[in-house]
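Retro notes, item 3 of 5
We never archived the inputs for the adenosine-5'-[phenylalaninyl-phosphate] complex last cycle. Fixing that now. Sequence and ligand:
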Amino acid sequence: MLQEIEKRAREIEKEWESNAKEISDLKGLEELRVRFLGRKGLLTQLFPLLKELPPEEKATAGRLLNSLREKIQGEIERLKAELTEREREERLRAEAYDFTLPGMWRPLGKLHPLTQVRLEIERIFMEMGFEVASGPEVETDYYNFEALNIPEDHPARDEWDSFYISDGVLLRTHTSPVQIRVMKSRKPPVRIICPGRCYRRDTPDATHFPVFHQVELLWVEKGLTMAHLKWVIEEFVRQFFGPGYEMRFSADFFPFTEPSAQVHIRRKGGPWLEIMGAGMVDPAVFEEVGYDPEEVTGFAFGLGIERMAMLKYGIDDIRLFFQNDLRFLKQF
Ligand code: FA5
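Structure as it came back at the time:
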């Protein structure tokens, strides 16, 4: 019986040793502990046999089994500490940031310079008390020409040659039709600006493009004069450009304003650039929209956003805005 127990103990020890070598995680270790030392464990099962041995053999076998149990227990403790540490390190390694990796790079978009300029223009006029209005880019002959006192055979139409969608329907050549739409829809006083895209059959050159942007302004109220017009434009130019620029008014003609003017701007010493047409609203236009020209007066202008941007940023060719060359666009 003693030999039998000793033999079993040796086998268990061997089996433990080979099993313990294979262990790679805490879960496996716990399974092994249960298999050898658990309530029905391989080693545990030998202890009841001691009762059947004579006293002197019992002591020998008892020592043997106890020392084996202690050995296994000791190794379990050691493995447990080792595996815990290893698992902690693995977790840390998986969670840790590698600061030597290259950073993630995401290109950041920007507003197009024309959009930036438009927003700046809107800001200045909104602070002066103007409201932003809008109208369609596909317009009828009536709003684009007729109602603005430009009848069908008027020579001014040549200047604003456009792209026609169908008979009497065209891509608007300026933002002035919005004046008509707004005045027809409400009573004076009116104080609006209208930024928007315009189209003309202009051959592209350094200062012209077939698609461009204007900002229309219209102020109608009792008692407005040319002096108000001049102040609004001067104040706007002062805020938009700051010092270092010069402005000049000169006489012009538009069928829908009387008198009419054009405004040129230049950087001190640079070439003049026409930025807008302006004038006092013609009585014929007021009559067309149902306002009484004896009662109210008003003024309007239409300025070119591209030209404003060219002057502000020192750009000498309008075509750069539409080429989408990132080397150009990134500068703003
Ligand atoms: C007009 O379009 C009038 N509607 C302006 C106006 C409004 C006058 C209200 C009186 C009262 P004009 O054709 O001059 O006017 O154009 C005004 C501005 O638009 C020009 O000064 C210029 O800055 C810009 N512009 C005109 N055509 C082009 C183009 N092909 N490319 C770029 N900018 C242009």
